[in-house]
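Whiteboard transcription, Tuesday session. T.W. wrote the structure tokens on the left side:
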């Protein structure tokens, strides 16, 4: 069957619509998460302000709440995170004033800013300038708001900051959550978990896994075979990230990360680039999902191309 040559303008327009729709879907998930955490914080604060109730529970309220919610919903609702949600409500008492463009990670960063006026300014700028969490963290860390107020050369400072943000090109790390939270799988926390069990559980709840993994991921294959002249290799999970425009290979390790695991993934990435990567694709990215990692092992094992 012959194929006609598609009009480039039409294809580009459709691509733009699809990418925009997917971005909006991700933002909707972020907005729902932020609103939920705000309401959780509100309930906690209002309960604490009840006087007798606060006296009855004292300092045990958040730890006990966290333990109960963690048993049912996972680590995302432990005592530490509940404190963040409580602080979130206290820092932003008006839900309608929250910016839907910002994620929970943005707001976690904003909670580090003590001055209310500065915090509000960073929130508005992050939303209006479409700052990533890395960009927001940089601006807060370099006291951008305070420097802007005191600077006599505001235009020069703005130009310098704009250039610095442009230099922060999107990298795979910006689109992948580290660590990925897998409590929604409902896997047992005791005994030895087989990698095949983890893979099967991920496939059973693929939609939730994609949301946990990060932005822009689309499923391609499971146990995909790639071959050399003498050997076959099987990649646990393969995705394509339409924001990074590259394939993403995932290898599942339930134990501690070793340098052999990193070397194997490096080989997979190079082999996949040679065999499957298209002319318009960016270099393939490899991700190892593991139980724990040693940063020194990671640092000295990674081979830069």
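and on the right, the sequence the group agreed on:
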């Amino acid at each position: 069957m012959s194929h006609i040559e598609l009009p480039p303008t039409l294809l580009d327009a459709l691509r733009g619509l699809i990418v925009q729709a997917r971005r909006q879907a991700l933002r909707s998930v972020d907005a729902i998460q932020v609103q939920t955490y705000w309401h959780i914080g509100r309930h906690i604060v209002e309960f604490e302000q009840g006087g007798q109730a606060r006296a009855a529970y004292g300092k045990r309220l958040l730890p006990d709440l966290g333990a109960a919610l963690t048993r049912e919903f996972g680590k995302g609702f432990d005592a530490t995170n509940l404190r963040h949600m409580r602080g979130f409500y206290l820092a932003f008492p008006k839900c309608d004033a929250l910016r839907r463009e910002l994620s929970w990670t943005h707001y976690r960063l904003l909670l580090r800013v003590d001055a209310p006026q500065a915090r509000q300014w960073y929130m508005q700028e992050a939303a209006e300038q479409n700052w990533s969490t890395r960009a927001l963290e940089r601006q807060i860390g370099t006291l951008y708001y305070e420097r802007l107020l005191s600077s006599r050369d505001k235009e020069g400072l703005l130009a310098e900051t704009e250039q610095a943000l442009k230099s922060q090109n999107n990298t795979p790390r910006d689109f992948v959550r580290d660590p990925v939270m897998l409590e929604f799988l409902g896997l047992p926390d005791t005994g030895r978990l087989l990698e095949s069990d983890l893979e099967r559980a991920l496939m059973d709840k693929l939609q939730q896994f994609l949301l946990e993994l990060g932005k822009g991921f689309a499923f391609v294959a499971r146990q995909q075979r790639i071959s050399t002249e003498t050997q076959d290799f099987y990649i646990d999970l393969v995705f394509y990230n339409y924001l990074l425009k590259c394939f993403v290979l995932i290898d599942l390790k339930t134990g501690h990360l070793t340098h052999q695991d990193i070397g194997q993934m490096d080989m997979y990435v190079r082999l996949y680039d040679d065999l499957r990567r298209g002319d318009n694709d960016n270099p393939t990215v490899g991700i190892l999902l593991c139980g724990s990692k040693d940063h020194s092992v990671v640092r000295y094992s990674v081979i830069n191309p």
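Someone added at the bottom: Confidence is low (pLDDT under 50) at residues 175-194, 296-305.
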